[in-house]
Amino acid sequence: MNVKRYLPILDWAPRYGRDQATSDMVAAVIVTVMLIPQSLAYALLAGLPAQVGLYASILPLVIYAIFGTSRTLSVGPVAVASLMTAAALAPIAEAGTSAYIAGAVLLAVMSGIMLTLMGVFRLGFLANFLSHPVISGFITASGIVIGASQLKHIFGVEASGHNLIEIIHAIGVSIGETNGYTLAIGVGAWAFLMLARKHVKPLLKGLGIKPRLADILAKTAPILAVVVTTLLAWFFNLDEKGVRLVGAVPSGLPEFTMPPLDTGLWSQLAVSALLISVVGFVESVSVGQTLAAKRRQRIDPDQELIGLGTANLGSGFSGGMPVTGGFSRSVVNFEAGAETPASGAYAAVGIALATLFLTPAIAYLPQATLAATIIVAVTTLIDLPALGRTYRYSRTDFGAMLATIVLTLVHSVEAGIIAGVALSIGLFLFRTSRPHCAVVGRVPGTEHFRNVLRHDVELCPKVTFLRVDESLYFANARFLEETVLDLITREPELTDVVLVCPAVNLVDASALESLEAINERLHDAGVRLHLSEVKGPVMDRLKGTEFLAHLAGRVFLSTFEAWQALTNKPDRMMCSK
Amino acid sequence: MNVKRYLPILDWAPRYGRDQATSDMVAAVIVTVMLIPQSLAYALLAGLPAQVGLYASILPLVIYAIFGTSRTLSVGPVAVASLMTAAALAPIAEAGTSAYIAGAVLLAVMSGIMLTLMGVFRLGFLANFLSHPVISGFITASGIVIGASQLKHIFGVEASGHNLIEIIHAIGVSIGETNGYTLAIGVGAWAFLMLARKHVKPLLKGLGIKPRLADILAKTAPILAVVVTTLLAWFFNLDEKGVRLVGAVPSGLPEFTMPPLDTGLWSQLAVSALLISVVGFVESVSVGQTLAAKRRQRIDPDQELIGLGTANLGSGFSGGMPVTGGFSRSVVNFEAGAETPASGAYAAVGIALATLFLTPAIAYLPQATLAATIIVAVTTLIDLPALGRTYRYSRTDFGAMLATIVLTLVHSVEAGIIAGVALSIGLFLFRTSRPHCAVVGRVPGTEHFRNVLRHDVELCPKVTFLRVDESLYFANARFLEETVLDLITREPELTDVVLVCPAVNLVDASALESLEAINERLHDAGVRLHLSEVKGPVMDRLKGTEFLAHLAGRVFLSTFEAWQALTNKPDRMMCSK
């Protein structure tokens, strides 16, 4: 066993020096300042007490620093995984109850086990089943659902629901009970954060601050909103005026937590845990790869599975919730100059200190402020132009994307993603099941062959050259049979059919049987089947099969060779009768 | 709407003449003689009263003659569909009860609706999801299970079960109660049929009968076994000696039957009905195509769906069971000279006459005789050498086949076929998710480029030519990113990467985004991305995308053009630094 593969920390820790430590610590301070409100907010989004978000931001970061391969990924609670956690736990228990919290712990542990096993068995390719349009549509729809779900905190009303329809309906019913103070704080924080996002950077640059630093400082606006509204709530006793605050948060570091061992619960949450794992993994890897490439570094997706898996195990066993790599935090970490995963470990120290010393203050934090930070954060997830881009490029991809979005919005996140995956696989198989086929003819005077429908080419009435632009496998084996049989019923004079195969990357057992059947049926009809331009690896397999032994015709290296051999007068316009 | 498309009978009926009618009638007589014992036996196999098999062999044949496109397919009860019917109905009701019979009617109606709708919406391609190895493995395993399930009738014992383990166990428990008379009849009939299959043909030929006729006569052996054992049972009153007979069969034509309208039952049987439909369709089409090609005729798979669908509707509404095209009967029909589907309608008349006049005799038919005909018939389904052939050709196809066989044998037919389909799709996606990629170099002095690992070719240290032998889509988009990023981390001198794309038949939206990401990451690392030999349809799509607008490098028509442009000294062994 290669120890280094499983412990990427051995790659960088032995050469870790003071300069790197300084860079990592600076980045860690900035990430910590971002992470405190985010971890509280995403716990709230998941329906969990605020401290669960903090717990999920301590041990997982330390563990990822040991097992992760990205130098700059910032692991912790993220918006989409929190929404999926809430959706998974809703049928299990009432939000905030001890059974609900135990469910979140179990989800983290199961997700940890699944990711780690997938990493050990190198099953990272499973994430490939999530096509980009499906992931993109899913994240857009999740962002919309998350944003909508936070409106109740802005209005200060009771309203719950796990899809857009339920949420809008619930808010519509209860909007009469809006709390004015809450609304003022929520809208105020929201407006402040939006303005900060748009105008603070230019302002800071105007003050002579370097663009990169200005960028980073602008990202710390949420902590300012948190501090100001917390002070307001404390000073004006806003909880007595009906403003919902985070409330008492236990002080102190997380303790060891056992997940519930109820097997019924495990099987009930299995699909949710798998989806949270895979979605989180895909997001982490794409952020990690983007950042790594900028410095010509590499991440190892299979080891990333182990890094994220062990981080989730750490989160679960320390009373946390499912975690993964967050996009905005990782970018900030990268741009603030983090050089090694140690930066994450330092941020964990920051969060641990917050858990020890800041909890009395957090009690006064209005939930509306957290809701505003969530809403502003998720707007970056919503990518509606992607719909148009995908539509213009490919209708089938667009179909899968739209189905994902619509089902996520109107039904549930799980239905959305499952439908998206099923549809993209189905549409891909459908597309390859009717491959592009072209009858080709010779470009006069050359050795090249082109589609008769697109080019002015020489033909021979007795020999048809059919080019198939796809690997031959079970989904199109029957299509091939039908195409060739159509050919011979349409052309009664035909004596030879040449399958031109430069684009055939694979011939599976089904296609082999179809080729045998085609050969036999053509033979019954007095027509010989030939092949040309068969690729090396495909030919290697065909050798020794009965198909080649029974093939009525020949296998030609080039289509021109077949033309010369079968049409007799290779240099005339028309071949002999 | 094209009436002729939906009514293939209009193709042949207007020109139907006396010669054709004579040929069709001769074939019909022979098929009827085969069909009587088969329809009784397959009803028995499905756990249904004998008359249900007869009912399923009347109206469906007439309807198929109107809507079917195969000239010679013989529709009716078949072994595998009967086994699947029994498996589907086992959890619903006790075999032979009225609820069970109503379930069979419902299965036929649902299967009819599904097939007809699939035909109208041209969804015949769905059948492609059943790869040949899965179908072949499934039929082999079904044959084994069917054969084993009939042993209880040969021994005359009570034993039930829906997979090999249950059946063997049940027979083991009850074998002590074997009935000697039943065993004698069963083994006698079995031996007779085996001998007939092997030796009757040569014997008849020796008597001067033409080979084709001898072949057909040999296939009528089952009716002889039926007649002889029925006479024995009647003459010696064998039912009083414990030999189980078919028993009283109601005389007369089938009546209109309504399927149960219980929605719970419909949803419970939906998956089974779909599997029966698809498996039946695949078998019918492959038999139909094989026979049609011998006469340079064509069948239309989408219209076949309508033909089989309406035949199943007819079967259900006349108190029958699921039907499809039978392999052996269709071959006999073809070889006996049937020229049009009218032959099937004539056979229906034969079965109707049998239902009217032969039922008193059928009451004395020993079940052991029917079991023997089933066992002999299904041995032709079992194709064990296919396992070896598939293993030698492709391990992945073999894996799907083996899983199908094992699950069908030890669990159930439905688990077997679902696992086979899921596995073949999964393995195909896995296979294409790690496509064959080769760094290629120039064959010295030519314009050709070949794999550096297989050939002695020219290279350039600053430019890498990477050929990808697969369409680019979501399952391999990430693999491509990793492959290219690996390349640039391994080769620090690299300035240009050329993706050589002659085998890329498709670039979906996921792969497009991956190409964008690759281009961007290479750009960040100071490397330009180029493409060469992009196919026409792929290029048509890429035009107008942001990827082409942002592409750091160029799109070259040929790889040689790229070589000339990027390596500066196209005719030297080494390119310039």
Automatic annotation (TrEMBL), chains A, B:
Entry-linked PROSITE patterns: SLC26A, STAS
A Pfam family hit: STAS
Keyword Transmembrane helix in record: yes
Membrane-crossing residue ranges in chain numbering: 25-44, 50-67, 74-93, 99-121, 133-155, 167-195, 216-236, 265-288, 345-364, 370-388, 400-430
Domain STAS per the UniProt entry, residue ranges: 453-566
Keyword annotations: Membrane, Transmembrane, Transmembrane helix
Record protein name field: Sulfate permease, SulP family
UniProt main location, coarse: membrane
Organism: Marinobacter persicus
SUPFAM superfamilies attached to this UniProt entry: SpoIIaa-like (SSF52091)
One term of GO molecular function: secondary active sulfate transmembrane transporter activity
GO (cellular component) term, any one: membrane
